[in-house]
Amino acid sequence: MANYKDLIASQQGKKGGIIEAFHAIQSEYNYIPKEALEEAAKVFGMSEAKAYGVATFYSYLSTEKRGKYIIRMCESAPCHVAGADAVIKAIENYLGIATGQTTADGKFTLELTECIGQCQATPVITVNSEPIFNVTPDMIPSILSAYK
Ligand code: FES
């Protein structure tokens, strides 16, 4: 696993480097830890508030701690009609968290997403961007136990 300090140092002095660094950090850690924000502020010569502003400006960057596996439930209309609500409930029950939360062991985060262009096989979930099709609530334990 690349260290956030190295990821930040490799972008030092580059235009837009802080955004590149945040991208790289997020792909390693799944979010941008507070220490990385502080380090980036130092290296790029800005206030921590400004660095935080950069990190929160882009919706695909997250400063909240997230799990190793990010589960996303598609909530656009075709998936919704096909039973997305029941699938979300099953995931929440199985993991013991609400949508938007991360399990205590840091393994799973559950989020919602817009249509991912796989409406031929609704409802669709993704696990770390890998789509899983025609998901029903009773499939959830076997799908997720594969990641435990
Ligand atoms: S609506 Fe869910 S994949 Fe398109």
Fraction of residues in helices?
A: 40-55%
Q: Compute the separation of the termini in Å.
A: 20 Å
Q: Got a strand count?
A: 4
User: What structural category do the secondary elements indicate?
Assistant: alpha+beta
CATH superfamily of the largest domain: Glutaredoxin
The largest β sheet comes out as:
4 strands, mixed
Shape: elongated
Q: Strands across the major sheet, in which order?
A: 2-1-3-4
Which strand-content bin applies to the residues? 5-15%
Distinct helical segment count: 7
Instruction: Pick out the low-confidence regions.
Output: none
What is the overall pLDDT average? 95
CA gyration radius, whole angstroms: 17 Å
Describe this protein with a few key phrases.
alpha+beta, 2 domains, binds FE2/S2 (inorganic) cluster, 148 residues, single chain, Glutaredoxin, 4-stranded mixed sheet
Per-chain topology:
Blueprint: H1 4-9, H2 17-29, H3 34-43, H4 48-57, E1 69-74, H5 77-81, H6 84-95, E2 108-113, E3 125-127, E4 130-132, H7 140-145
Parallel strand pairs: 1-2
Antiparallel strand pairs: 1-3, 3-4
Helix pairs in contact: 3-4
